[in-house]
Amino acid sequence: MLLIKNCTAIKFLFLLSLCLSCAFSFAAQVAGTVTHLSGPLLVKKADGTVKVLTQKSTVEQGDILIAEKDTYARIKFADNSEVTLRPNTQLRIDQFSFEEDKPNNDGFAMTLIKGGMRAVTGILGKRNKERFGLNTPTASIGIRGTIFIAEYVPPELSGVNDPQGAGRPPGLYIQVLDGTIFLKNDAGLLEVSAGQFAYAVSFSKPPVLLPNNPGMQFSPPVSFPAGNSQENASNEKKSGSLICEVR
């Protein structure tokens, strides 16, 4: 009888350790870390819980990042890419998979729900360009090792109700600072290169190039560094009319 009880206990401990091992193995990979903040940054987790993030907080696949009013936030990802959120922005990390020695497992996808962001490509976006993408309500964005700014103005925040929209119509606004991106939706595909602006009003209408800055403003605090290199800052200065204060 004692032997049976001991065997049962051993089996229980074995199953418990196996379950704990599986739980840790399936834990979400840390996608990135918050490196700079100018105000409140919230995260809505995949299970629906909402938390306040601080500098050095980590973000994971499935997180929805919410930059509050007056908040700029920079997140550096594990592959050395960077995303800076402007105030009143929501960005979801749909997928993040990166192992430096396993490029076949790469995957990085985000959704800009509303607001604006500046993205700097890292290792993943350079070695597996087809596996990096940004989705928005009016178009998806593919990249070729680049720096770009994306701003989505939802219909309910267009015009005078958009604090940073300068009376713009709803839709997706893009500027490329370096490299090339592709705007794609059900109606067409558009290549956008460094120094150009583009606009996509809906998935049913093709994206178009704009002749000049449509009113995009992206001015993170002076304490936010320019990016991954001095060359990036130089490209921004050459880009023309974009208001982007990064010193």
Quick recap:
The protein has about 250 residues and is an alpha+beta fold.
Topology:
Layout lengths: L1 H24 L4 E8 L3 E4 L5 E4 L4 E3 L3 E4 L5 E5 L4 E4 L3 E9 L9 E14 L2 H5 L4 E4 L4 E14 L17 E15 L2 E6 L3 E4 L7 E3 L19 H9 L9
Parallel strand pairs: 9-10
Antiparallel strand pairs: 1-4, 1-6, 2-3, 2-5, 5-8, 6-7, 7-9, 8-9, 9-11, 10-11, 11-12, 12-13, 12-14, 14-15
Keywords:
247 residues, alpha+beta, 15-stranded mixed beta sheet, 3 helices, 15 strands, 15% helix, globular, disordered N terminus, disordered C terminus
Describe, in plain words, how this protein is organized in 3D.
This protein has 247 residues and is α+β, with helices and mostly antiparallel strands. It has helices at 2-25, 123-127, 230-238; strands spanning 30-37, 41-44, 50-53, 58-60, 64-67, 73-77, 82-85, 89-97, 107-120, 132-135, 140-153, 171-185, 188-193, 197-200, 208-210. It has a 15-stranded mixed sheet that branches. The longest helix has 24 residues, at 2-25. Mean pLDDT is 80; it is low at 2-7, 9-26 and 229-247.
Mean pLDDT metric: 80
Structural class: alpha+beta
Major sheet size, sense and barrel closure: 15 strands, mixed
| Share of β-strand residues | 35-45%
* Portion of residues within helices: 10-25%
Q: What's the helix-strand series?
A: HEEEEEEEEEHEEEEEEH
